[in-house]
Amino acid sequence: MKTNNTLRTAIPTALFATATGAQALPAETTTLAMSGTPKVNQKADTVYLMIKRESLKAEGWPWERVEVKASEAEETIKELLEDPDVLIVEKDTKMHTQQSSSTEIDLDRYYNDEGYAEQRIFKDASGTKMRLIEGLQRIQSDRTMRIGVLDGGFEVSNDIEYQEGYNFVTWETPSIPYGPAFQNGDSGICDGRDFVSTHGAGVTSIAAAKTNNYIGIAGVAPNTEVVAGRVANCTGNAFSSEIAEGILWLTGYGSSSNGTHPIEPVEVINISLGGEGACPVMVQEAINEAISRNITVVVSAGNELTNADDINPANCDGVITVAATNHDGELWEDLEWNEGSNTGSVVDIAATGEWVRMLAENDRISIGTGTSMASPLVAGAIAAVKRDRPNMTPADFERALQHSGNPLTVETTHYGIGGGVLDLMKLMDEAGIPRAQVPVNHALTGERERFAAALLHPKAVQYVADTGTISDNLCNLTEVDGRDLNPDNESTPISLFRVAKGSPLTPADPSATIIDQLDASQNRGIIELGATLDTSAYDYGIAQCDTTTGLGCNQKDTIRAVDPASLVTPAACEGRIVASRL
């Protein structure tokens, strides 16, 4: 990630994404956007200043917003910086949604979600191999995830589980106050306009639409509730100050300046917005707060075929920045319209962003193109991983994405796409979510159970103890079968290990303890695991791993979880169980 120095003033930025069908605005509005971009309805002779004051820190949000004449802005900034109470002054930058186009289509019903059959992001028939369904099948936890979306154009939906929302846009005309009304049509939001963006509805549905409910589409992260922050106006324009406020609210902060109250924090935030220039200080501070609370912030890279290092918040420290590909696994470009995915050193991963099915008003299915569509896809994938690995930090995800992507199917000149194209199976491997479970059986079950009485006779137990080869308590012995780990590798031992609950299931994890190891000549055998396992504190796994040399201990795709439910105590051992030494 590019490191941004703390600035006393910020460089004003221009809007940069394109959209179609925008309503023409009056002549007196500013023209800071690139051609084809809807403009912010702001007087041409005014700018907004964001002022951070020491005296406001106690209120939770130390920034205030002031409107000044453009001709007086620099002088006002100088005067403000002479005030000891003023810590930072920067111009409020403008941003826009990063969607190229949106086209509504009618689809026949299909099993089970109406539009699932046409959702190519779940199909691996052509170049892109994101393996979303295969990865989702590995999830063991059923806990509900909580995703925050900062956007505009949210719609009432039967296919999205909105838990709560809040409006941070108060500058548009007619003015909508701060408050819980956040969807188009709520309290007059966007009423009477010829063009109304549904960008937020589309972005949210890609990440978190309900699954298996016979309507709409399937989101990438099932069983997910959404907290929506309306930070963009009816045509998809936003100020960085609203984005910063929204991030802080989603982290659980409340502020008297905007009327928000503390909420349950989300675990992942998606921001499909951006503008030119360095990361604004207030946005970076809000992101830092989110990261400190283990909240991963995912942002789009932008659609100008340029360097994402010059786009914010894509260039903010600590965020996951997402570029876009087409369905064939090539970098998304549309040279006819002079648009396509931004790339750069700040990009962490790429995902499909061309012709992605999503929801519009009244839950109708539409198609969107742009990094705005790729970003929620990755946010949903991260939420799916966090369901099983809640302790993974934003830095953990950044490292995992760097090592889990696939290359573009056709290499083109670009500024960088981080780890490559998203592959959820490989991301799950990096997160230590096993590809399968293996059963473990008590050593005295099956064909040996008929000998249990004799083997547990006191003289037999004493004889076993005297030999010193195995435990003196046969009821603590477990048979482990590793024959499906890697049939082509017969030279590496199989190790049984445990990790702290919720940690990556790999013998290389810092919390890992090697319990026992089978000889390389064996692929199944007896290990002293114990008749009781502490499954409340630990997860257990087996791997082809030589604990002496470290050989194979980082080969993540062959690790298997041990299924504790499969370990059944034989009748002969009732009353003989000794608490596990683990």
Protein architecture, described:
This protein has 582 residues and is of the alpha/beta class. Helices cover 16% and strands 22% of the residues. The protein has helices spanning 73-81, 132-136, 199-208, 240-250, 281-292, 371-388, 394-402, 424-430, 452-455, 458-467, and strands spanning 46-53, 63-69, 86-91, 94-97, 101-104, 145-151, 162-167, 224-230, 237-239, 268-271, 273-276, 296-300, 311-312, 320-325, 333-334, 339-340, 347-352, 356-359, 365-369, 437-442, 478-481, 494-500, 513-518, 524-527, 538-544, 560-563. The two termini are 41 Å apart. 50% of the residues are buried.
CATH homologous superfamily descriptor of the largest domain: Peptidase S8/S53 domain
Instruction: Give average pLDDT, whole number.
Output: 82
Fraction of residues in H or I helices: 10-25%
Which strand order spans the largest sheet, edge to edge or round the barrel? 7-8-6-10-12-14-17
Number of domains: 3
Structural class, by secondary structure, is alpha/beta
For the report, how would you describe the main beta sheet?
Answer: 7 strands, parallel
Q: Do you know the CATH architecture of the largest domain? A: 3-Layer(aba) Sandwich
